[in-house]
Amino acid sequence: MIAITAESVTPLTDAEITTATPAVRMRGLSKRYDERWVLRDITLDVPTGSYLALLGANGAGKSTLLHTLAMLSPATRGELSLFGESAARPSPALRARLGMIGHQPMLYRDLSAIENLVFFGKLYDVSRPKQRAMDMLERVGLADRALSVVKTFSRGMVQRLSIARALMHAPELLLADEPFSGLDVPSVQAVSALLAELHADGKTVILTNHDVRQSLELAQRVVVLGRGRVVSDRRAQDANADEVTREVIG
Length: 250
Hints:
By secondary structure, the chain is α/β, with parallel strands linked by helices. The protein has helices at residues 14-18, 62-69, 92-95, 113-123, 129-139, 155-167, 185-200, 212-218, 241-249, and strands spanning 22-33, 36-47, 51-55, 77-82, 85-86, 98-101, 173-177, 204-209, 221-226, 229-235. Strand 9 (221-226) and strand 10 form a beta hairpin.
């Protein structure tokens, strides 16, 4: 199991973050499905090395925004750049700077943990993929289950393996869509600690979440979405949980 805790890490300071090139820059980002606008004129900068939580009720546009940032679904209008490069025609090198944890773990249930990681490592041309896979399994506390097939894993173990899969190619930006969904308390603590460790390593972390208080404890910054628009954007340490909850409910 992961030994590190969320309290034991030292993330980048505000000064260090603000002097870096933004990991994500959105200008008027909008997304439409048929006649329905699900994102409306989103303008945000996410500094490199920061930890951002996207909050909002169901249908607020959180997952759609995350998929747009992951370049899985292009915006209808507006501009998106990642690490200073336009996402309109992303290069393979730019895509390799991102890691994604979605609602689906993107793992093969009949393969072992290490077979899954080696497979994804080879897709990204990772050097020494088997060694990298073992390093990642150690990091997420699953080294002792390296040879176990995924279909024997608990929900929490699958989620930790999914994070290891997303980290195989050492991305600089991690996008996590509801990473705590369906997890028991020990698994939530393990995943929280791992995300905190990645942030402390200088990675940029953007996650969607329904739990307001948990988000305020984990992230440096919280952005509330409502009907596809930015409702509020504030530092987590300055936020009041009850006020944020009212904004989420709308």
